[in-house]
Amino acid sequence: MSVFTRSRAGKFLGGIAAVGVSALILAGCSSTNGGGGTDDSDGPAEPMDEISLKIGTALPQTGNLAFLGPPEEAGVAFAAAQINEVSEETGLDIEVVYGDSGDTDNKAYETEIPRLLGEDVSAVIGAASSGTSLQFIDQLVGAGVIQFSPANTSDAFTTYEDNGLYFRTAPSDVLQGDVLGNLIAEDGNQTLGMIVLNDSYGTGLARYVTEAFEAAGGEVVAAPTYNTGDTTFDAQISEVVAADPDAIALITFEEVATILPSLLGEFPGEKLYFVDGNLSNFGEDLPEGSLTGAKGTLPGLSIDTLTDFTSELDAFLEEEGDDPLTEYSYAAESFDATVLLALASLAAASNDPAAIAEKLIEVSGGSGEGEKCDTYAACAEIIVGGGVADYDGISGPITFDEVGDPTEASIGIYEYGEDNNYVAYEG
Prior knowledge:
Layout: E1 16-19, E2 23-26, E3 51-59, H1 69-85, H2 87-90, E4 92-100, H3 109-118, E5 123-126, H4 130-142, E6 146-149, E7 166-168, H5 173-186, E8 191-197, H6 200-215, E9 219-222, E10 225-226, H7 234-242, E11 247-251, H8 256-263, E12 272-274, E13 295-299, H9 307-319, H10 331-348, H11 353-364, E14 371-373, H12 376-384, E15 389-391, E16 409-416, E17 422-424
Helix pairs in contact: 1-10, 3-4, 5-6, 10-11, 10-12
């Protein structure tokens, strides 16, 4: 299989501007069915009569991000259903092979990635964890298959040598760290403690939170780390509490469920800050009011602005005989990843991974030449008609740069209420 290359030396663009009170925006090989392949002319490729696109998922069904698996897989399934609804008009149908990424402790990816590659997929959506994605990115790239994550935020991917086959719909932690660090400072905290997952996601995000908080005049007084698979956190809790910080940021994954009961006995819940790896509705798992006033950040548009999408997603799941979701984190980004892969395949008139990768920037609007559209059906109609589509997704405009990073992204800010569930921050 052939692959194309592009420079991974791109940098984040622009600065940060406020949008309302709860978000900040950064401006800034398989066979081809039906013949065809890519079009070398200046115009858009002519669609083939039939394109069968097969993709896999390596999303967390198990491991320390397992709570993200259901919304992410639901987003993929919902998008695939919409794509196949109009397959007769577009000539493209999609098949999804679901797999478990696990985490770096249980290493489910060691058997799942070879299984997915054996299914001859053109792309794999996943993993959610940056650290887990880094465990198999070389395996996918080496096989000439696209890796497309809906949730990787580590800055390591911006400069990773991936032969142009890695993309993501989530923004780098450069943005989330800046938003969270400034939020903590703006809340009047002068000292900060952190408990940090020791992987590329945790240490990277902690670094950017530290830079933003210190630039605002604050001081980080303790930042103990732990490793994936650890089950006790008494040492980290003791160290950070002993430093007597004004606030504590928990840069963790699902381990937060073990950390919180002990930490809440020694530190006020309203002075805790969460991140996308652990922002969750804890509800009755904690005593009522335990987290009232605690805050957290999550890349993507505010959940409150996605109510139409989440309602439609739950209706789809009910039709499929599945339970509605209790968490929606990264569902929209997973939906958009699936739609973008299908649109790029349609624009390339091919299911070859390299051909699809060449078109992903274009259909996201990165070429600056497309016609705006916000559904798969509308964008596909433009492509089939010989035009260039610019998909603006459920999760935002997306618009990939030359290294597969979104150049436009939002960070939602949330606050916990008496029920230990989070809502969009109104302060």
